[in-house]
Structures
1.
Amino acid sequence: MSDSTGQESLDVNVRQTAAEMATGDRTDTLLQTDDLVKTFGGFTATDEVDFSVEEGELRCLIGPNGAGKSTLLKLITGTLSPTDGSIFYDGHDITEMEPNARVDRGISMKFQVPSVYGDLSVRENARLPIQQFADGEERRRRVQEAIDAAGLTGSEDVDASTLSHGQQQQLEISMAASLEPDLLLLDEPVAGLSVDERAEIADRITTLNEEAGIAFVVIEHDTEFVGEIADRVTVLHKGDIFREGSIEEVESDPAVKRIYLGSDEDSDGDSR
Amino acid sequence: MMQALSQARYGIGAVVVVGVLFAVGALTTPNLTFRISYAVSFVVLAAIGLAIIFGIMGVINLAHGEFILVGAYATTLAVTKVGLPLPVAMVAGALVTAVFGLVVERVIISGYVPNWIGQRTVGRDLITPFYDRLADSMVATFGLSLIMVQGARIVFGNSIDQIGVPFGSTAGYPDYRIALVGITAGVLALVYVLFTQTLFGTRVRATMQDEQTAKALGIDTERTYMYTFAIGSGLAGFTGALFAPLLSMQPSIGDQFLVEAFVAVVVGGASVVVGTSLSGLLLGPIDALFSDEFGEFAGRIALLITAMLALRFLPGGITGLIDRVRAMREGGS
Amino acid sequence: MATESSAPAGGTSPTPIARLRNRLEGPNTIGNSRPFWIGFALVLAALVAFPILGAGTGNQFSLFLVLGLLGLSLSLVWGYTGILSFGQTVFFGVGAYTFGVVSINFPSPGGITGAIAAGTLAGAVLAALLGYFMFYGGVRDVYVTIITLVSTLVMLTFMAQTAGSEWTIGEAALGGFNGMPGMPLLTLGAEGVFTFQFVFNEYEVLVPFLGTRVFDPFYYLALALLVAAYLGLRVLVNMDFGRVLVAIREDEDRTMMFGYDVKRAKLVSFTLGGGLAGFSGVLYAARNVYIDPSVFELYFATLPVVWVSVGGRKSLLGAVSATIAVEYLRLSIGGEFALVAVGALLLLSILVLPGGVVPWTASRGIPWVRTDGIPWIRKRVRGDASSEVTES
């Protein structure tokens, strides 16, 4: 259960910084990839992708398994280096930039596999990203806010490994959000969660997006979840963008249904 | 058959090239050729047992040198005390080491015996297996090697009598050492056949690729690991047996082999046959040439520095390099 | 709130003791309670008194104290940062040799002080170079360990063949396996004003009730330095930087994704470890007034791994106490069986108690050690906060 006061005050901090960083109207392009390619040996995971995200946009990335969604996210964060092409963020070319430098610039990510620091307590987990830019009383406050926003008030000294899956996801989102990013990448945030937990996370994401202006790219398979949160949807197939549009447009497109059933066509409907 | 041959075309080509080089060298500069070939054989024979265990089980056995010691001592004692003819004694040496390896695997590496005891006494496993625990296996097997070296020293003293070198010499170079080159090729061929043409080999490669799937297909992966370790140990023992006539029998001979083996495996990468042989072909000449020019120490250092450079610039070793080259050539389609 | 501060909440400024304890205590070290520090003080007092009260002069024991610094260096690098280094003895040996070379060439007290600094710096610089080569070259996990192992072998092979007379730096002959002769005795201070010789300078002291006792100043120097290093490292690992190191140990990639420059952090930790190991080597050479390449031997390279594995690598206290205990045992057993014992100890500790003895005893709730200090052995608490962690 999210503590709404905690969540609000966390998001006030984030919102203020995001507002300071915004340079104009909300339709500025935040992220742009240019002919981005990634191959592993003979296999092409990312095939000349031009992917863009606007400031404050809530984008969902969907597609059949093996489409290259996680790969694209890892290219954006810098965990993987592209074979070819470039990535622009906030007007700067970040293609050669180290992951931690990209985080400093405002990109933040939550991995597919929940990876809180299991042997550390909830408080120590929450403290780790925050200790870089806050000291003393402010640090304590922000750590507590992050914990509260994740709905873990009262469990501060518990080992993170004993948290439920859903609680770990919430903690991770808190930790990623506490970096005050402009772009937050979430790889399958609700996989394996109950309906209630999914609703909570959907709520969290939309609040962070609306009130703090954080742009999101969310990989998810649950179409209902996607429908709840997305501004726009990008469909990835065999490493390239197959369709892009609103959730209604994409859902009603028969070609999209076909690729999920295993058809080999490319975005023009021709067989590859 | 034809398909297998065409897939192996690079390998066959490489073997032909090496064979031709050796023949040409033997006729033109025999002494240098034999010295380099001996160095290559030394590295390959030292490494092959370790490579099998590392490549397949993800265990780094720092007691590998001492396994070679077991083979060498067993062979020597079989000749001097039991009076077996040398070839039989060598086989005996290899077998003794294989059995010893089996025991080590059951007790330490997989923890099967302690866990069996644990289940029957306190109701739980006592030990986690060492598979894919590279750093832990290094540390634990180093402990084992200390025990083995000192054990050998305590039981057998500081040295035991050496057995004589068989055969004569050609062009001033001992025939036995030349024969080793052929034996090395034979061992590599044997290992290759074992892992590609037998059912056991297929099981091993399946387990190596994906243990869960292999288990689901009914492969007893524990058993596979056990036999693999025994085979790796047996090969180490065979190496010890082969070199028994050439070295003075002291408990410290393991060290000589360990460094070369270790470096060769690390540079070679995960592929047992290809990685080890190419690694041997690279490191043998480097060792021989530096040793000749600058002395034994220089040869050692050259090897070690090659290893460090390979670790830094060739992740995955030579095997990784070949994989990348092959992928680039095929990916271009 | 145990991890945040031991100061009283709400307004009153903490006492100096509380402030000091704040720095020294935290989730990354064992012993965050008053009973611990009382125990610590008692043990320290015993160590101070033992050479005077006991039969020995503390002469032999000072070796263990010096090696304790080496053990601490590996605990920092392996236990806290997750880098298993078989190369600490390289920095140890280089520090020792550098001290030898500089002090032989400049045998005055000032020169000797410079030699100490040079030796420590040599260890740090070499670690920085090797660390840069590895971490900034993208070498990871076990391959880092292998490279450190290989570098130990390189040093051994190289130093073993420096016996010839051409291997001389200034007045100092490296000496190969014969070792480096002619080191000056460790004398510190200011020339002409006050100097004090620490080595081979036993004082006879008339102790009330016990008669004449011999007291070895080097022992007290080593003890003071070891305690300083231990406390210093306690502060470091409980600082923000220490928490980053622990995070790197737990999950390097994740930590990078929080914006931390992981390569740099590892390099800093590795360099500090190298400097500490080098400093240990300096004291080793100063104590023995001699150094030879046996410090580069593979056996010696694994000893720190043994100490730290047995004692608990993630615990500074474990590392130090195990170093002293294992070395004491090793030298007591002596001879051939010592190696067997060490090998067996190493094997057993990895098999049975991979976490080490000291953390294991702490987790068993030994009353003087509060368990809520160490994350990885903290008693598992269920998801609700109502079950309190037991107070000691």
2.
Amino acid sequence: MNAILGSVFVGLMVIGTPIAFAMLIAGLVAVALKPGMTALVVTQNLFSGLDSFPLLAIPFFILAAELMSGGALTEVLLKFAARLVGLRRGGLGHANILTLTFFSGISGSALADAAGPGAMLIKMMRRAGYKDAYAAALTASVAIVGPIIPPSIIMIIYALTDNSVTVTGLFLAGIVPGLLIALSLALVNHIVSVRRGYRTTPELLDPAPLLRLFWRALPALLLPVIILGGIHVGVFTPTEASAAAVLYALLVGRFVYGTLHFDMLPAILYRTALMTASILFIVATSAVFAWVLTVGQIPQQVAGWIAGMQLSPAMLLLAVNVLLLLVGIFIEPLPGVMIMVPILGPLADAAGLNPLHFAIVVIVNLTLGMVTPPVGGLLFVTSIVSGVKMGPMVREMRPMLVALLAVLLLLTYVPALSTWLPGVLGYRN
Amino acid sequence: MLTRAASLFVAANRWVLILLVGVMAILVIANVISRYAFSHSFSWVEEATRYMMIWVAFLGAGPALRVGGHIAVDTLVQALPAAGARVLRGLLALVMAGTLAVLVWLGMDYVAFAWEQESPVLGWSLGKIYLAIPVGSALALAHLLLVARRWVGSGEWERVEGFDPQAL
């Protein structure tokens, strides 16, 4: 039965069936193949997969980011970032990295960051004399910190898929790795800028005093602080924090930055609904898929198979990394988490790995898949918004991929990078 | 006539989604405020907003489909020559339509099965809440039929300002 199911599912994916539909069909096939099974189990899982209050944080974090974003915000954050790091060599590149890192604290899926603020940053770098393929490659790489620095939609889904971690624990665990990725890219930018003689761009620096620029940027920078602080102090649950973020973004967008007008609300709510539905539909169908895996005893079989290989935890982690990098090339992080975590989670558990550490390795790994050629969602988006062809961009991407892989290895073999911050604040999972 | 009906249909679906997301946000925000200001929170809000979110997921599946919001591995379609890609997209449209039709049918079974059951807090009929599955799938099927010709022919989905399906 598993052989038939496996080939149906993989076959559907390869021909390009939307992943949600492929998972649903796998469920229907499993019902048909398994004697005495009623199809009710498919609809039941479809519903129960969504019947969870924590999932509400997804539409709310999306809505908050939509309410807060807008041209003016990118400008405010960029001015502040440029003032902090713009006078170094390759200053605008550094400012780009810092701005998108700020943005990752506002949005839960940074891929949108590449399309919105990213597009603007690429344009500015091009004007300042950077090679545009380089600007695009840098922007695409930095955008992956979006889902790693909280808030993060992937982390909410991960916590739902694997009950051994909490959303709060994951959010905190992602901060240091996210900053590490940003730093490693800053290093790449420094080296490339020295080699190519990218200069600072003093004409882009705002003459206003640093304090005033900071003051302007502060309301946006406070959003992640309110979310994490509120959850940590016990004022909010993660879902409530996301709702508070909506209210805060509404007030800041309307009254502080003035970019938000109330007649924009229907369009913003509709975009939020579209993104929410796209994500939640696949969450629902992946509950059906998880049921298929369970009745097929696939996690147990994989676990038994791996256990038979007598891998040490270090080797296991390496094997997981290689597997996920391959998976991540073809599958977006979101479905990747939902397909792979039910299989890999128990393995990591059995090997005695810290669940937060393992979660960060999985998430960073699958997110990296968005910038690995030949097919990466972020590469496509960045290519489209910047007008830079994939070929040149991928060539410029090489040093960044090396840096990102180095960070991944570091995160894989130094668990403390993920577990230290949550541990200090008292979150063990 | 048909195009007018179709655009009314899309607009109606759009406004229902806008209202659901808006009301969901207002309810949860109001509940948090109420808990702090008046030390009282309404337990029905959690249940009601959860069900509203589920309706957003299923009622939004169709409009999301129109704009290519359901992630797929499109490596093969991209690699094929134009004619082959059209054939493959035609096949994919059939697969999706078939799946949605089955979902309408199974969803109705599920609704009938749970019609008499009640939700824990509000006492709503669970069957009515489960209607999200057949209704959403039927609407998604209608949306698919409306855009299938164009998508199979050109590979282009519709566009919505500021929405990028790749950016999920």
